[in-house]
Amino acid sequence: MPHDYSYTGIEGVEGKLKEVSFMPSTIETIDTAFLNYINDTLNISVTTNKGFKKVPVIWVSAERALQIKRDKGLRDDKGILKLPILTIERKSMKKDPSMKGVAWAHIPETNDRKGGALVVARRIQQEKTSNFLNADSARLEGSMSAADVGVGQQNFPSKNPGKVVYETVSMPIPTYIVVDYAVTVRTEYQQQINEIITPFITKTGQINNFFIEHEGHRFEGFIQGDFGQSSNVASLGEEERMYEVPITIKILGYLIGEGPNRERPKITIRENAVEVKIPRERVIMGDIPEFDSTRSIDLFYKE
Fold first, then answer.
1. What's the Cα-to-Cα distance from 284 to each of 135, 252, 289, rounded to whole Å?
2. CA-to-CA distance for 271 and 269, rounded, in angstroms?
3. Whole-model pTM above 0.70?
């Protein structure tokens, strides 16, 4: 069922508001988004002697024993990788102030336990707002013409919400980094090289940028234009024939917070003050009684 946002009092609000689950953005988030783009979005296949088959994609940081255990079909009986294959390696990360996304300016976090810098949402705290409204509605003390005098009944409908408590949701400002990935294509035949690198060249059209996504986060990537090829076919040796093309791709990503080392909350929720009261100072002699039956207000507070 669709969510009911009628409590906001905004006409047509159902088409304007939506709930968004915001996951943290870490280095692993960027890595996973890039791996999914190469493996799932591009989904490159190639012609082999066994038909048109998908090219395996390997993240080279895993140990060799783990790779063999996870997918025994990647290597032959002698432990040699079966070609063709695509490998991905993260080469470097750089925090470049000149390479930023939407959040360009630096906004420091609030210097307290909660922190938070960038406001992302604002909503009504219904329970506390209704408590204030019920208190005003049930109040009978004072002149009936006064604005703060109610009808003696809780949950009484009112056109004037009065004291509204809002929850303001904020988060740390994203920190942008440039991540360099090396995608290496290894095949036995020239035809397979041609079939594999073609999507990298033509997928983005006349430009070289694309977008990757994971867990609600969106990062921009740039494919470098150099597709240098190397091979050992000119040596006419007895070693296994191999063609190799390295492809460099830069990803403009962002990190939010310090990950598991963050002491403050990942998402900060603050509530606004709707009423300010200053208590009176007490004196021993000559003080006005706090509760005076002839007065219509509580003399202990100044509003």
1. 32, 68, 11
2. 7
3. yes
